[in-house]
C-alpha cells in the first residue's frame, strides 16, 4: 500500500496542508470508511446520495487515521482545527490524482481488462496465469469503478510486479478516466454485449465506450480484443492507432491471432488446444463454456506477452479460482447439479449460458431458471422476448422465469415448446400453489418462493439447473434454497 509522508501526498494529489508542521506525518494506506480505518491511514471523506464522509471525520481520527482530506470550501469544525488536514478542491478527484501519481512511481506492469461480459472471469484467469512467475495483485470484488480502481492502485505494495485491473462503466468517459489513472501496458476487451444499453443507447455506443481503454495505453503497449466481434474491429480501425501500439485478436473464430480448436466442455470444466501451438495442447479449465475458452485465450495471450512459459500457464489454469457466482457448480439437496451464474445478466451473457446448457449431455432434464435482465432501456421487453426465441427444446427441457420482464421470455419460448411437444404441454403461468407439480415445460413466476417450491418439488438427482439473472433479482437465493436439505 502507499507509504508516503503527508507532504508528499499533498504534492501528489494537488492539496494544501492546513499547517506545514504536518508535512512529515507518515501515511500508510488510505480508507474511505471511517468504520474500517486502520492506524496510519489517510481518511478520504467521499460523499454519496445519502451520506457525506466529512460527517464521520472525527470517528476516523478516533479510529487511528493519521490525517484527513478535507474539501476546501467547507468550514472546518472547531474540533478539527488543530488536526492534520489536507485541503483539496474535491476529495474524489484528489483520490484519483493520488492514485495516478502513485501508479507512475511504481515499477510494475499493468493489465487493464474491460468488456460487457467476462471481465471478472478473465481478470481471475490472467492473474492466475501470471502468478506462477510474478508477484501479482488483482482487483478484488467489484472495486472496478471511479472509486474502486484508485483504491486498488493505492493498495499496491511496491514489491508487486504486475497488477490486473478490471475496469467497469455505465456511461461514456468512465473507462477513459480509469485507464488514464492506471496507464496499462496491456489492455483486454473481452466482448461487446447489451449491458448498459439504457445509458449508451446501442451496441455501437457500448463498443465506443469500451474502446476508451486504449486512451491510457502506454507507448509500445498491447491491445488485445475479441476478434469475433465486428464492432471491435470497426472501432479499432476508427481509432487510427499509432504503429507503436501492438494489436492482437483472440476468440473462437479461426481468423484470430489466438484461437482454440478441439474444444470440449462439461458441467464443471473445459479443455482446448491453442491453434498452431503444440505446447498449449489440452489446456484444462475448472470452469465450463465456450465463452470461457475465449476468455482463457485472452489470458494465454497476456501470459505470452509477458514471457510466461507454457507450463506455468497450464498450471495457472489448473489452479484457477474464480470469483463467486460465475457458473459456480454446486449440488442441490438431492444431488442434482446446479450452476450458479447469478452474479449478473444481460442478453449476450444469457445466450452464452443457454449455449452452455445446450452443449451439456448426460442429464435427465436440463433446467434454465432465468430472472429479469435490468437496465436495458426502452427495448427491455423486446430483448427479453428475444431470449425466449433463442431458447428451444433442443437447448433445455424446462424454463422457469422470475420477474415481470422475464414473462416476455417465457411467452416467446413457449411457442417453440408448444410446436415441439403439442398443446397438451403448453406453457402456463403458475398462480395456484396446488399446481406446483405441473409438468409444463415453461412457467413464468412473479413469486420467487413459489418458483423455489415448484423446482424443489420437480427436480430429480439426475437433473441439471442453471440459474441466472441481474444482480437486483438476487437469483442466488434460489441456488441457496436448492442446496438446503
Task: Give an account of the 3D structure.
This protein has 3 domains: 3-94, MurE/MurF, N-terminal domain (Udp-n-acetylmuramoylalanyl-d-glutamate--2,6- Diaminopimelate Ligase, Chain: A, domain 1); 106-318, Mur-like, catalytic domain (UDP-N-acetylmuramoyl-L-alanine:D-glutamate ligase); 328-483, Mur ligase, C-terminal domain (Protein-Tyrosine Phosphatase, Chain A), CATH 3.90.190. The chain is 34% helix and 20% strand. It has 16 helices and 23 strands. The protein is globular and about 80 Å long. Residues 423-434 have low confidence and may be disordered.
Ordered list of secondary-structure elements with their pairings:
Blueprint lengths: L2 E3 H8 L2 E2 L8 E3 L1 E2 L10 E2 L13 H6 L4 E5 L13 E4 L2 H15 L3 E6 L4 H12 L5 E3 L9 H7 L7 E5 L7 H9 L3 E4 L7 H4 L2 H8 L11 E5 L3 H10 L6 E6 L6 E8 L4 E5 L8 E3 L4 H16 L4 H9 L9 E4 L5 E5 L5 H13 L6 E6 L8 H11 L7 E5 L3 H16 L6 E2 L12 E4 L2 H11 L5 E5 L7 H8 L2
Parallel strand pairs: 4-5, 5-6, 6-7, 8-10, 8-11, 9-10, 11-12, 12-13, 13-14, 18-23, 19-20, 19-23, 20-22, 21-22
Antiparallel strand pairs: 1-3, 2-7, 14-15, 15-16, 17-18
Helix pairs in contact: 3-5, 4-10, 4-11, 12-13, 13-14
Amino acid at each position: 500500500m502507499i507509504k508516503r509522508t503527508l507532504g508528499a501526498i499533498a504534492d501528489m494529489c494537488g492539496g494544501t496542508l492546513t499547517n506545514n508542521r504536518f508535512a512529515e506525518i507518515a501515511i500508510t494506506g488510505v480508507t474511505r470508511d471511517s468504520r474500517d480505518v486502520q492506524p496510519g491511514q489517510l481518511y478520504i471523506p467521499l460523499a454519496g446520495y445519502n451520506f457525506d464522509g466529512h460527517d464521520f471525520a472525527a470517528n476516523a481520527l478516533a479510529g487511528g487515521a493519521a490525517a484527513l482530506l478535507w474539501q476546501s470550501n467547507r468550514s472546518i469544525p472547531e474540533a478539527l482545527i488543530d488536526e492534520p488536514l489536507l485541503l483539496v478542491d474535491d476529495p474524489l478527484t484528489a483520490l484519483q490524482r493520488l492514485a495516478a501519481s502513485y501508479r507512475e512511481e511504481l515499477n510494475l506492469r499493468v493489465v487493464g481488462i474491460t468488456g460487457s461480459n467476462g471481465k471478472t472471469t478473465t481478470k481471475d484467469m490472467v492473474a492466475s496465469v501470471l502468478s506462477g512467475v510474478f508477484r501479482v495483485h488483482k482487483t478484488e470484488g467489484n472495486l472496478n469503478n471511479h472509486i474502486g480502481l484508485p483504491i486498488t492502485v493505492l493498495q499496491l505494495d511496491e514489491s508487486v510486479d504486475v497488477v490486473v485491473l478490471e475496469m467497469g462503466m455505465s456511461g461514456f468517459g468512465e473507462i477513459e478516466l480509469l485507464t488514464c489513472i492506471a496507464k496499462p501496458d496491456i489492455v483486454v476487451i473481452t466482448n461487446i454485449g447489451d449491458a448498459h444499453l439504457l445509458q449508451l443507447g446501442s451496441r455501437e455506443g457500448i463498443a465506443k465506450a469500451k474502446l476508451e481503454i486504449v486512451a491510457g495505453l502506454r507507448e509500445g503497449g498491447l491491445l488485445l480484443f475479441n476478434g469475433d466481434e465486428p464492432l471491435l474491429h470497426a472501432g479499432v480501425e476508427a481509432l487510427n492507432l499509432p504503429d507503436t501500439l501492438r494489436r492482437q485478436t483472440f476468440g473462437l473464430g479461426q481468423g484470430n491471432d489466438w484461437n482454440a480448436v478441439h474444444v470440449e466442455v462439461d458441467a464443471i470444466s473445459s479443455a482446448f488446444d491453442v491453434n498452431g501451438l503444440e505446447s498449449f495442447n489440452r489446456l484444462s479449465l475448472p470452469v465450463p463454456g465456450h465463452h470461457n475458452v475465449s476468455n482463457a485465450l485472452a489470458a494465454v495471450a497476456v501470459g505470452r506477452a509477458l514471457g510466461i512459459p507454457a507450463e506455468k500457464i497450464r498450471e495457472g489454469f489448473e489452479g484457477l479460482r474464480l470469483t463467486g457466482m460465475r457458473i459456480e457448480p454446486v449440488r442441490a439437496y438431492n444431488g442434482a447439479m446446479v450452476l450458479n451464474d447469478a452474479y449478473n445478466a444481460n442478453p449476450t451473457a444469457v445466450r452464452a449460458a443457454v449455449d452452455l446448457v445446450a452443449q451439456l449431455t448426460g442429464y435427465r432434464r436440463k433446467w434454465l431458471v432465468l430472472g429479469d435482465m435490468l437496465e436495458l432501456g426502452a427495448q427491455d421487453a423486446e430483448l427479453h422476448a428475444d431470449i425466449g426465441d433463442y431458447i428451444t427444446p433442443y437447448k433445455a427441457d424446462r424454463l422457469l422465469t422470475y420477474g415481470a420482464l422475464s414473462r416476455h421470455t417465457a411467452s416467446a419460448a413457449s411457442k417453440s415448446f408448444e410446436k415441439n411437444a403439442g398443446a397438451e404441454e403448453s406453457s402456463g403461468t403458475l398462480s395456484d400453489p396446488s399446481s406446483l407439480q405441473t409438468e409444463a415445460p415453461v412457467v413464468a413466476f412473479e413469486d420467487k418462493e413459489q418458483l423455489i417450491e415448484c423446482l424443489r418439488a420437480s427436480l430429480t438427482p439426475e437433473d441439471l439447473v442453471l440459474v441466472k439473472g441481474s444482480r437486483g433479482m438476487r437469483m442466488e437465493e434460489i441456488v441457496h434454497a436448492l442446496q438446503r436439505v
